[in-house]
Amino acid sequence: MAFEGILLGMGNPLLDVSAVVEDDFLNRYDIKLNNAILAEEKHMPMYNELATKYHVEYIAGGATQNSIRVAQVSFSLLHTPNNTPSSILVDPLLRWVELLCMFCQWMLQIPDATSYIGCIGKDFFGEEMKKNSKLAGVNAHYYEDEIAATGTCAVCIVGGERSLIANLSAANCYKPEHLKRPENWALVEKAKYFYIAGFFLTVSPESIQLVAEHAAAKNKVFMMNLSAPFICEFFKDVQEKALPYMDYVFGNETEARTFSRVHGWETENVEDIALKISAWPKASGTHKRITVITHGVDPVVVAEDGKVKLFPVILLPKEKLVDTNAAGDAFVGGFLSQLVVEKPIEDCIRAGSYAANVIIQRSGCSYPQYPDFK
Ligand SMILES: Nc1ncnc2c1ncn2[C@@H]1O[C@H](COP(=O)(O)OP(=O)(O)OP(=O)(O)O)[C@@H](O)[C@H]1O
Ligand SMILES: *[C@@H]1O[C@H](CO)[C@@H](O)[C@H](O)[C@H]1NC(C)=O
Ligand SMILES: *[C@@H]1O[C@H](CO)[C@@H](O)[C@H](O)[C@H]1NC(C)=O
Ligand SMILES: *[C@@H]1O[C@H](CO)[C@@H](O)[C@H](O)[C@H]1NC(C)=O
Questions:
Q1: Ligand in closest contact with the CA of 37
Q2: What is the documented function of this protein (predicted)?
Q3: What pLDDT, in 10s, does the model give residues 17-35?
Q4: Ligand 1 binding pocket includes 312 (Cβ within 6 Å)
């Protein structure tokens, strides 16, 4: 099948431990809403407190893995004959039901359009992670660390907003040696598109470099995400090293502004920043760099070749909003599902908005198991 393995993601597979908490909980652990950070010493008791005192949900997560899973599912959904993305977006919910049925059949035909690489532990959570990828049809090649436990990410939700505290644990043990093994490098050779969230810059810049150079040499498409203000700020050097290879840069408004400040650009204007990121020198000349910045409910900003385009999102009544966690990841997933079949950028953005819209009506980055339609 022509699409098999066309999209490869590499990142930190994490088990999201999600719970609704109170402001007091946030204060005690010194965490801020709408932020994503790495766990420190002071956060250690938090995971246990979440598990014992709150109603927690365990959901396979990790930014890249979420995007890849959504891409795989959307891919299966959207590439059915007679179903162009534009028709899907007419009435998302009705369409959703219809497509879900088709999706089950379609999955059987191309289960492996996407693949994913990252490191987990040899434990229960790791096993759950494997089952989850399989179920979504993602061809995951996990490196299994002998000692470290599968990474977790606390998702603390207050009033529909959330804070992420990642304990990378095994995810932090990924090694380029795993990537170089013939069975894994074969995934790189097969893929034509690569997506890596910025979070992976803290783990294995060498692995990123290997993939980036391969993509540049073979005229393939290499994509990364700014992912979090702390990446732009404290991993500036490794991010800059990867930037020339990036054909697409994703990010949200806050990340874009942090990037701008860290580079001394003296502009807070998201459109200007997107243009400047696109104009950053490139390692290979084949593709012009496209920068895609999301803005919550505001239009998505796309900068390419010195020009900016704005794309409105699908609005959602406030009472339907459950959890904006993973909206960004889902957006990227939907976007990628169209990009890899060479759809125009308008379709990519539409599919991204659609995927984000579905995800924010649910807890975590999970697709409905049954259509919620009565
Ligand atoms: N309240 C909302 N209503 C409708 N759509 C939304 C809303 N919030 C997010 N979205 C959709 O999700 C996309 C990404 O949102 P946003 O810019 O908030 O990402 P983000 O803050 O990076 O998300 P996260 O970090 O939670 O994954 C938007 O472009 C939009 O399509
Ligand atoms: C992260 O997880 C590991 C393994 O479960 C644990 O030993 C460690 O204490 C945790 N670190 C923090 C900061 O919570
Ligand atoms: C963008 O994402 C960051 C986390 O990386 C978060 O702190 C911020 O609130 C988000 N911004 C918007 C406008 O949603
Ligand atoms: C990635 O990019 C999207 C879309 O531009 C953004 O909304 C999101 O916050 C980013 N997130 C991660 C975690 O990589």
A1: 3
A2: ATP dependent phosphorylation of adenosine and other related nucleoside analogs to monophosphate derivatives. Essential to sustain methyl recycling.
A3: 889 999 999 999 999 998 8
A4: no
